[in-house]
Write a structure and sequence with these properties.
The chain has five helices and twelve strands. The protein is α+β, with helices and mostly antiparallel strands. It has a twelve-stranded mixed β-sheet. The longest helix has 19 residues. About 25% of the residues are buried.
C-alpha cells in the first residue's frame, strides 16, 4: 500500500515522456482522495528535472536522483528512482511509449482539459506479485509532455486518487527552484527527515540490540510509545498546514 501511494505521487514529480521540445511550466496540483483534498505546486523544467511542493514536502528530481525536503525539520533524504523500478511500476515511467506498452495501457479517446488537448490512456499497471493490481487512467498532453490529469484506483480502503493541474503557466523556470535550500541537513532515512521517531531503533534498544529482551522489556516503554504517538500526531498536523 505504501509503495502504491508513493508511486502515485512520484508519477506527478517525474517526467512522463522524453520529448526534447516540451515547454517548461508551473501549475497548481490538486489531489483528491477518500482522506481529503490536497493542493500543491508542480514545476516542470525538462524530462529529467522537476519539482513538486505538497504538504510541507519539496520533492526535487534530477534524474535519477530524488531529493525529498521537509521544511518543518530542515532535513532532506536522497534516493534513486532506479532502485525502486522493480517494485514500483510508476517509477519507471520515464519513457512514455515503452511504459504504456509494458503496462498494457490503451488509448481510449481524446479530451481537452485546462486548455490542452489530451490523449486518454487506461489500463492496469503491471505490479509485483506481492502487490494487488492497480488501475490507472491518465490524460496526457503532448504539448506539456505531462499528464494534465490522472486517476489511480488504490486497494481498499484507500479507493480512487484523482490528481489534476490548474492555472498552468508556460515559461522559463529559474534554476534555483531545483536546488536544495541552504541550511538543510541530509539524513539517512525518510522517518528522520520527516521528524518521526525511529521505531526500529527504539525496538532494537528495547531488545538489547541482539534480538533478546533487555532488562525484561520486549517492547518500548509506555513513555517511549507516548512519545512516538505525540511525534506522529505533530508531524501529521504540520504536513496538513
Amino acid at each position: 500500500m505504501k509503495k502504491l501511494i508513493q508511486g502515485s505521487i512520484i508519477l506527478f514529480i517525474t517526467a512522463i515522456a522524453a520529448g526534447l521540445l516540451a515547454a517548461e511550466f508551473s501549475a497548481d496540483m490538486i489531489s483528491q482522495m477518500i482522506t481529503g483534498k490536497m493542493s500543491g505546486k508542480i514545476y516542470y523544467k525538462n524530462p529529467d528535472v522537476t519539482r513538486n511542493d505538497m504538504m510541507g514536502m519539496i520533492s526535487i528530481i534530477k534524474g535519477p536522483m530524488v531529493y525529498q525536503i521537509f521544511t518543518n525539520t530542515k532535513k532532506y533524504h536522497v534516493s534513486n528512482i532506479d532502485e525502486i523500478k522493480d517494485e514500483n511500476p510508476v517509477a519507471a515511467a520515464g519513457d512514455f511509449k515503452s511504459w504504456i506498452k509494458a503496462n498494457n495501457m490503451k488509448k481510449i479517446g481524446k479530451e481537452s482539459l485546462s486548455g490542452y488537448k489530451c490523449q486518454i490512456y487506461e489500463g492496469t499497471l503491471q505490479t509485483p506479485q506481492s502487490q494487488p493490481p492497480t488501475h490507472m487512467k491518465l490524460w496526457y498532453s503532448k504539448k506539456l509532455n505531462y499528464p494534465v490529469k490522472t486517476e489511480i484506483t488504490l486497494p481498499p480502503p484507500m479507493g480512487k486518487m484523482t490528481t489534476h493541474l490548474e492555472n498552468i503557466k508556460v515559461g522559463r523556470l529559474d534554476q534555483s527552484l531545483f536546488v536544495i535550500p541552504e541550511g538543510y541537513t541530509e539524513v539517512a532515512s525518510m522517518a528522520e527527515a520527516v521528524g518521526m521517531p525511529d521505531f526500529g531503533a527504539l525496538m532494537n534498544n528495547s531488545l538489547g540490540g541482539d534480538g533478546e529482551a533487555s532488562g525484561g522489556n520486549a517492547m518500548p516503554s509506555k513513555e517511549e510509545m507516548e512519545e512516538m504517538m505525540e511525534k506522529m500526531q505533530e508531524m501529521m498536523k504540520q504536513m496538513k498546514n
